[in-house]
UniProtKB/TrEMBL annotation:
This is Reverse transcriptase/retrotransposon-derived protein RNase H-like domain-containing protein. Residues 104-203 form the Reverse transcriptase/retrotransposon-derived protein RNase H-like domain. Coiled coil: none annotated. Residues 79-100 are annotated as: Disordered. It comes from the Eukaryota. InterPro entries: DNA/RNA_pol_sf, Rev_trsase/Diguanyl_cyclase, RT_RNaseH_2. Pfam families: RT_RNaseH_2.
Length: 339
């Protein structure tokens, strides 16, 4: 009675595992379809906790649930400070508000209904096949980060996993290019590393997330960490208009051409591994070597982009070059003669 063999499908921990893939358990989702509107914070936490268990089946989960999560954030900010042992007369914690009926807006109702619909219509996720190429769609907006990992089965792309999250307060101040680069790093390194590490794959996104590297004169420590993390992966990059990237939780964006622009794996590796430190002749220099294949045509300048790192010069090299320069040589001669 404890074992069953040769079954077409098996129910395990709220999931149905079959030959087609992994899907949600219909019996569990019956509760979602009839879930009443939350009246207080406790009921809202219960609903969001249940939905979060199946968030891998819902594209753009963080964006959909954002209005409901804001109600919980208000709950956190209304809690008072803890009473200090050194100052017993300090005011204690205020009673946190419980009812949310007065703050339930049309956006909250829309998010509540859409979450229920998304779960009851959740797709069957395909099994990840390490012998098949992966295709990752990522996107970033002021409302959060999102990504969808695909593999091709029978000539069709089938989702393997959905990932999404909201932005931290500090991340909401990032410029657009840095936010796109964050989405790329977060999806590849933080969420889908178990699938993508050691495999070659294609990333499709709107705009070019590597623009942050190309347009930033000097990367900060965070940028260097992101580059170092991405350098262990091998992938090609294709970017397209955001209006055609809706599966990755994209916002509506202005129209562009629908043609793809591609960066090869070698080009991406050149950018990720191009930042290095060299010590030569007692002078420490930071050189960024960028391959021309890594940069779109409108960025390319053949006189500036080469396949090797930019050269560094020692004090002896600089001294010899100054001696050969006709103008600097006259200045040196005048200084030597105290003129």
């Amino acid at each position: 009675e404890k074992c069953q063999f040769c079954l077409p499908s098996v129910t395990y921990l709220g999931h149905v595992v079959s030959a087609e893939g992994v899907s949600t358990d219909p019996r569990k989702l019956e509760a979602v379809a009839s879930w009443p509107r939350p009246r207080n914070v406790t009921e809202l936490r219960s609903f969001l906790g249940f939905c979060s268990y199946y968030r891998r089946f819902v594209g753009g989960f963080a964006k959909i649930a954002q209005p409901l999560n804001k109600l919980l954030q208000k709950e956190t900010t209304e809690e008072g400070c803890k009473v200090s042992d050194k100052n017993p007369s300090a005011p204690g914690p205020r009673k946190a508000r419980e009812s949310i009926q007065g703050e339930w807006t049309s956006q909250c109702e829309g998010a509540f209904v859409k979450l229920k619909e998304s779960l009851t219509r959740a797709p069957v996720l395909a099994y990840a096949d390490p012998h098949k190429p992966y295709e990752l769609h990522v996107d970033a907006s002021r409302e959060g980060l999102g990504g969808v990992l695909y593999q091709e089965y029978g000539g069709l792309l089938r989702p393997v996993a959905y990932v999404s999250r909201s932005l931290a307060p500090s991340e909401k101040n990032y410029p657009t290019h840095k936010l796109e680069f964050l989405a790329l790093k977060w999806a590849v390194v933080d969420k889908l590393k178990d699938y993508l590490y050691g495999a070659e794959f294609v990333i499709k996104t709107d705009n070019n997330p590597l623009t942050y590297i190309l347009t930033t004169a000097k990367l900060d420590a965070t940028g260097h960490r992101w580059l170092a993390a991405l350098s262990g992966f091998r992938f090609s990059l294709k970017y397209r208009p955001g209006v055609n990237n809706r599966d990755a939780d994209a916002l509506s964006r202005r129209p562009y051409t629908t043609e793809w622009t591609q960066l090869t794996p070698d080009g991406v590796q050149a950018l990720c591994q191009g930042t290095e430190r060299r010590v030569k002749g007692g002078i420490e220099a930071e050189a960024i070597g960028v391959m021309a294949a890594a940069v779109p045509e409108f960025y390319c300048n053949p006189t500036q982009l080469r396949d090797e790192s930019l050269p560094t010069f020692s004090r002896q090299d600089l001294k010899a070059d100054q001696a050969r320069d006709p103008l600097i040589a006259l200045t040196i001669k005048a200084l030597s003669a105290n003129q």
